[in-house]
Amino acid sequence: MNQLNLSKQIKTHREREGLSQEELAEKLFVSRQTISNWENDRTYPDIDSLLLLSNQFGISLDELVKGDVETMNRKLAAQHRTTWHMLGGLFLAGILVGPGLYFFDNWGLLFFMIPAGWSLLNAIKIERWKYDHRLRTYEEILVYEKGQPVPRNAQQSTKSRLIVPITTIVLAVILISLTLLSMWLFGVL
């Protein structure tokens, strides 16, 4: 898998301009440690910092993240596939519990537990990817690359705080409904 090359770009352009990490940090209103983290590929700058970097170095955002956009698209596509795996596992868990209990008694719970476990593992994988690969930043960059307005961080954090609990509640209601319907249809409720 291609590694993101922004870290190399930042270091190369910073050194070309004869700036220390501390000096660049002051110009971008971040800490020296933040610059170090970017250059060592431990964290990825948010869209605002990327725009400040491109202005500081006198290059376009496209030049700065060149090569990274394709990698970002692949990682976002992988996250979407994992989301479908998670949803598929939830659907199977809800649908199969009734027939499983009907035909296999208590062993039929495996027909619920296996897809539910698969779904849970994929949910954990999604959250880990979001954190590790800074997917929100990737989405912001891709939106910016298309010439669309980038949502501001304050709006996103408010949305994110609401979307996660709402999504969790909706998925739980769907799973419980499917499970009860399946159990009722097979007369094990």
UniProtKB/TrEMBL annotation:
SMART domains named in the record: HTH_XRE
Molecular function GO labels: DNA binding
SUPFAM superfamilies linked to this entry: lambda repressor-like DNA-binding domains (SSF47413)
Keywords: DNA-binding, Membrane, Transmembrane, Transmembrane helix
Taxonomy, superkingdom: Bacteria
InterPro entries with a match to the protein in the record: Cro/C1-type_HTH, Lambda_DNA-bd_dom_sf
Record domain HTH cro/C1-type: where: 10-64
Gene3D superfamilies the UniProt entry points to: lambda repressor-like DNA-binding domains
Keyword Transmembrane part of the UniProt annotation: yes
Transmembrane segments: 82-101, 107-124, 162-186
Protein name from the UniProt record: DNA-binding helix-turn-helix protein
Organism: Lentilactobacillus parafarraginis F0439
